[in-house]
Design goal:
Elements: H1 2-7, E1 23-28, H2 32-44, E2 48-55, E3 66-70, E4 82-86, H3 108-117, E5 122-129, H4 136-139, H5 145-151, E6 157-164, H6 175-186, H7 200-213, E7 220-224, H8 226-234, H9 238-246
Helix pairs in contact: 2-7, 3-5, 7-9, 8-9
Amino acid sequence: MDLLTQALRGAASARPAQQGRAEVLLVIGGGGVLGAALLARALACGRFSRVQALVAKSLATALRGFEPLPQAAMGGALRADTAVIVFERPRRSNGRDEAFVQPAPQQLAALAAQLRAGGVRRLLVLVPHAPALLPQALKSGLATLDEGRVAALGFEQLLFVRAAQAESGKVARGWLQRLADGWLAQLAWMVPQREQPVRALRVAELAVELAWRLPQAASATRVLPPELLWHAAHCADGGALLSAWLAGEPLPQAEVPVQRW
């Protein structure tokens, strides 16, 4: 389990959870580049009393604060207060991520319903998209019917994070698809800098900050647009910026609308 070792390496130096704010965090999609980085960050930051990860097969670990959660547990009561669903664009499978459940976008509504029925109160969803291909109107709003169904489930906090991602793990394609890929690649030069992809490690760090700060924010359904994610990733204190955004405070350096429902 090389990837598991890499993903959880930082947990050995985890700080004690802060009194009164420590909660149980459940990660669905702990494999892959972004999922592994998020899992490692959640364990290393010491802000959660326990970090669970949904696993597809039995996983033995003595790591402090980490709890593999079998898929069968999704049918009953869950101990997690907050859950994070990580969607990643397809890439070559190297067999190291197979221990973790890797959700598909079409499973969003069903997974969210199971989490809500299990008692999870707050949900954060990391949604990847290709730069230049997401219409402006959808960057700060619900983009699909499934997202609307999740919003109707009644989570105390629901947050969609739209993270621009560069395509990786390409496989052999026909000439027509290669032509289309080449044309789309040219659009990258036309994408504003603040809509460019953010490194997976930084996205993971900011996602954990958001999961930790959600309990202090007013109940709402929110969408974090890619421009604000990029800005938070490149400012001195991205966590403080996101906290201000969650509170609806003015953001002098980021002209990004805050939408609530």
